[in-house]
Amino acid sequence: MSKSSARRRRWRVVALVGSAVLVAAFLLASRIPPVRRGYFLWQLERCYRSVPREQASSSLEFSRVMYYQEKLVAEGEPIVQPLLALRHKYDYLWYWTTTTAVGALGSPGTEPALVRDTELADPAVVCQALTALASLPELHCQERVLTLLGNPVPEIRARAVYLVTKYRIRAASPILVTMLQSDPDPTVRALTMQGVVRLEGREAVPLLIQALDDAGVTEAPLSITVGAIAYSRLQDLTGERLATKADWERWWQEKQAGQSPPSLPAP
Questions:
Q1: How far apart are CA 40 and CA 24, in angstroms?
Q2: Is residue 23 part of a domain?
Q3: Rg (CA), the chain
Q4: Angstrom distance (rounded) from CA 214 to CA 149
Q5: pLDDT per residue over 218-229, tens digit each?
Q6: What angle do CA 226, 230, 235 make, to 5 degrees?
Q7: Which among 160, 179, 256, 257 would be 20 to 30 A from 63, CA to CA?
Q8: Do both 214 and 236 map to the same domain?
Q9: Which residues pair with 225 in a beta bridge?
């Protein structure tokens, strides 16, 4: 064998070994080794003991822990049961991260655990459980979200309204119509308005017109009357800029009359 042939062969071997090393390095970088699962869970727990909730969004440690959690979820690592066991520790932010991971991974124990969590006394935990539950496609999960529309706690009702609106749960439509007209909390009524518009479309116009007289003041995100929000929704939905409720009622009656079929000629 000539020197040039031997040299080419050595380079091929070097190239093959180098490629194998690069592939192995990539795989190691893209996966979390099984031996680090316990370390990951310990880090997650330690982070929530040490990082105050109000500082979590700007904490580098929190960001790093969330990064590893996302990798575990993407890789489908078997961490569902440990996370289910830990989800109630510390505060609702801890609950939110663990519940999000559990819901994303999927598990036979996930749905019953989340349903049970919606029966707890802490509104923050109930809202987080609702958020995870609504993202699951199973019918009984959506039915549980619907039942929370009648919860006595305004914060929970508001979250349920937001979720049935976000996921377009059509069965919620008649409940939202009733809530828009009679819910005792103005902030919930204002949020319900968006759900009615999204689920009912232009059929929501007469409901919004009736809500123009609602003088209830919302607490979030702005202190504004429900009637003012109804007026804004009417403008967005119809493109009209009318001054009074009477003007809106007259416009809607004319609109409906113009869309009615022409009368048949007398025989």
A1: 22
A2: no
A3: 28
A4: 21
A5: 876 678 899 999
A6: 150
A7: 160
A8: yes
A9: 217
